[in-house]
Each structure stands twice: as C-alpha cells, then as structure tokens.
Amino acid sequence: MSASTLTEPLPYRDPSVGDLIIRTSDNVDFHIHHRRIADVCPIFADMATLSDTPSNPISNSGEMEKAVVHVSETSRVWEKLLPICYLAEEPSLALEDIQNILEAGRKYAMAGVASRMRMALLLSDFLEQKPFSVYALACAAGFDDVARLAARRTLRFPIYPQDTPEFATVTARALYRLFDYRQRCGIAASAVVTWRVGSTIRIPAWMSLDYGMLQTCRSDWTGCAAPSFTAALPTGEYEHGFSSSWVTYMDRLSEQLKAHPDSDLVESPALLQAVSNSMDKCSTCQKSFYRNAMAFTKIIKDKVNDAIGQVQLVLEK
Questions:
Q1: What CA–CA distance (Å, rounded) separates 52 from 69?
Q2: Domain range list for the chain
Q3: Are 211 and 184 spatial neighbours (Cβ–Cβ below 8 Å)?
C-alpha cells in the first residue's frame, strides 16, 4: 500500500464527511455537518438564504450533493474557527488569528467564541509580551477585565510602542484612555518616592519604623565618611545622619517613575550603583549596604505597586 493511500485528509477537508461545504475566499472547501454547525451558529440554520443549494440534491452517480456556503474569510480563519465551534482541541493562535476569529464570531453570532478568545488572551504569553495589542483587542471585544490587566502590563514598556496593527480596531478615545492611565500611574508612583519638600527631606509616616536603614553608621555624623543630611521625621522631629546618596536615588527614581511607572525601576542597578559608590567612603556603611538596599527597595517597590494599583483605567461604555 502506497504512502499516499495512508495519508489522512486534513481536518474538515474529507469530501466523504458531512452534508455542507464552507468555501473560503481563497477557494478552500471545508466539509462539515449542517446540523452541527447550526447548533453553535443559528445563522447557518437557514441554508436557503446562505448556500448554493443544488436543485437536485442527488447527483448522476447517485451520491448526495452538498450545499455550498461561500464565506469572505480565508481558510486560515476557518481552520482555527471550526475546532473552537466544535469544542475540539484548542488550536495554536497568533494575535492576528484571535482578532479574525473574534470578528468572525461576531459576524456569524457563534456561541462561545468570544469567551474562548477571552481566555486565549488571558492565558497566553501575549499579555506579557504584547500588552498594547492585547489591550486593543480586549477593548474592541468588550473584555474589560483583560483590558485592565493589559493596561497594567503596558507600564513596563516605553510609552510609544512599536507599530501595533491592533490599534486599528479601537477608537482614538480608547487609546487616549490608555495614555491618560499611564500618566496618572506615573504621578502616583512618583509621589511615593518624592520626599523632598523645598529644601527639606520628609520621611513619610509609612517609613517610620524602617528609616534606620537609610542612615549612615553614625547618626550623629561623627566617625562616618559617607555624606549625610538631616531629615524631618513623621513625628515632626529632625534627625541627623541620613545618607545623602539615598536622597539622590529617590530624586532620580521619582523622575523616572513619572515617565515610566514600572516598579522594577526601584531595583535599577544604575540607580543603586550610585548609592553603593557613595557608601564606599565608609567601610562600615558599605558592609551593611546590600542588606539595607534589599530591604529598602522591597518596601519601596511594594508601595509603588500599591499606589499604581489604586489608579483606575477608565474604559469606554
């Protein structure tokens, strides 16, 4: 028996199966059962208005001739769409596939397609790798929860992404809402680390139990070569010996967070290296720097995330 004899037809391509042909725009035929597709897509129930139904359903050879439905989508769309309609194994999907399937699902009123695509956006790597694209698709499909998650993920990326074809699916207002959200997140994140009020450094109340890690080894300024300053405590009192390099770190971090509200910036090696270099002036401070930096940046990162989490994305209704 030859290899060609053993080759099985591709899914939905077997002419011996079904009683209906879906013919795509690129002239590919999918052979399916009319009743089965009609169960998930009521539009297909009325075949008289959709198909080229043969006047004589029995061919000269005695076989049943199939009705043909011409569709405007390509074969790639339907080879992904049919398994979803039939609740078969989830096909591998690119973002373009999800967009096209969502459009086809709306067009043909296919039950369950939107919810399957919502889960595809949530569970795939697209949310982490291409959040701008996911945001656009989610807005167009009305997936508010996905849009909010994607908007939060965009904060890790530059404000102006590379060309995003999916932006064509949403309104200018939806894009404005995204960039407005980013700006408000930047303001909120920056405020967490803005401790300088005029010429005074004020330690926030939430730092009252932990500010010791910002001080040099001698809070009275004696015996320590690392530059230090006086700061206002939450109690209203002033205390000496706060490391000047941490103030510089906070000032720089505040500016960066305003434009790029990503809590990972808190652990930026470039920002922390400047603090470490300053601590080199005192061997005692240098020994405790790593431990203090790890503890301090964790506190700040959590606070930045909390502040960003309070910012609400306003979606179109």
A1: 6
A2: 1-89, 192-309
A3: no
